[in-house]
C-alpha cells in the first residue's frame, strides 16, 4: 500500500513537472502547438509571463487602496472580475501572437 502511494505521488509529480515544462500556465496552450509558430520560451517569458500577471494584480489592488479614483476602466474591470473570482480577463486558450500567425497563414492560403 505505502509503496503504491509513493509510486502514485512520483507519477503525479512527473506529470506536473512535464506540464510545467510543456504547457503555458496562463493560456494553457501546449508547447507543441506554440512551437509551430513561435518560440515557447519567448511566449512564456514575454507574452504570457506569469509574474507580469501577478504584478498587475498587486498593482491594481494597491491602486484600489491608495488611488481608487485614478484607476482606468480596464483596471476597474479586471479588479471587479478578480473580486468575484471571474477569470475571463485571463487569455485562457488564447495567444495574440498565435492568432496573428493563424491569420497570416489564412491570408497566404487565399492568395
Describe the structure.
This protein has 111 residues and is an all-alpha fold. 69% of the residues lie in helices and 0% in strands. α4 packs across α5. The mean pLDDT is 91.
Q: Please tell me how large the radius of gyration is.
A: 19 Å
Q: Major β-sheet, in short?
A: none
Could you tell me the number of beta strands? 0
Cα distance spanning the termini: 63 Å
SSE topology string = HHHHHH
Average pLDDT for all residues: 91
Percent in helix: 55-70%
Question: How much β-strand is present in the residues?
Answer: under 5%
Shape: flat
Task: Briefly characterize the structure.
The protein has helices at residues 2-22, 31-35, 40-47, 50-66, 73-83, 96-110. By secondary structure, it is mainly alpha-helical.
Task: Name its key features.
flat; single chain; 6 helices; mainly alpha; 111 residues; 0% strand
Topology (SSEs and partners):
Layout: H1 2-22, H2 31-35, H3 40-47, H4 50-66, H5 73-83, H6 96-110
